[in-house]
Amino acid sequence: MQIDLHHTAIYVLCRLVGIKSEYAEIIAYSSQFVDDAVHRHALKFKNGGVFKQTMTAHRMLTPRTIDINDALDVWIPFHFPPRGDSQDAEVMMTAPNSKVLGLLLEDVRTSSWPHSLYRLGIGLHYLADAYSHSDFKGIYDIHNEIQLLTGVNERGFIEDTGRRLSVKLWDRWSSDSIAIGHTEALENPDIPYAQWSYSRGSKVFKVNNLEDRYLPAVRKVHEYLVYYLSKNPALKSKVRCRPFDDFEDKFRQLLSYRGSKEERYKNWLKSIKNNYFEFGDFDERDGTLFYDDNVWFKEAVEASKVSKTRNNNHKQYNYNVFRKKPGFEESHWVKFMQAAAEHKFLVIHCLLPELGITVG
User: What contacts 342, CB < 8 A, 6 or more positions away?
Assistant: First the structure.
């Protein structure tokens, strides 16, 4: 799934169940930031201290990112929750009824402040991806080798021949297939209105994303948020929880909108700002909602680019100097990074072993 679901739809669902806008904003930002936290290097600060970032996504697929270490660092803990209900090769299959996901969400419900909202956003991203990434594995595995038969790209065309060609060239260069996640299905699992089909061996699978995956996903997120809020009433506004059935047609309409992810996202933002979902406590934060993947980082860290020339060959290069800003330890960025580290440790070192899945 992409920013239209992970940020704006999650924000709407939070508001519909009665979560205050100030908390909904943090939850939705955390949900989307899972796709944008692409750095793992530590920052050494000029004004003292170091901080290790938690990487939750990759900018692009490369031979390095199909390594099993990256699967355990990124793909499995943040985007492909394993089913975990069998002892055969399919134990790592991504599925909405994942036991790993169920245990994770129960832990999120009881997570403590100040990481609870960030843990919730990360957990909702994991939950949403369990639907869109269903039937694929977050590891390099022959199971992910499929033949895409029909599909769309973000412009709505039936077949993205340019991307197909690039995949084939990459295959030839790497001497193997890109059998990790849904790479061979291209963007199709992440486009809400896509209807696509693929084959695996002799079996053919037809998928209607909207009806088969996206509407069930937003309904499940709504259901979980109702449960979460019942256990965490401090997040409640004075507006009563709205049942999902009252708004299903509105979700269907927005998820059916055809366009690039940027165009779909703008359509969601416009709808929120026009109070399309009729929030009973609509406020300024609803009317000015936006997302910038650098906002939290810039609030916490001052980064200055410095140019330097190597003495031996007079070659100039650039590097960054980092300083902690006041309030660094309590910033959204730091809390997200800490929550993501907690989430990953729980999935890889606690939940998977608890279900008998050997990962270490």
Answer: 111, 115, 119
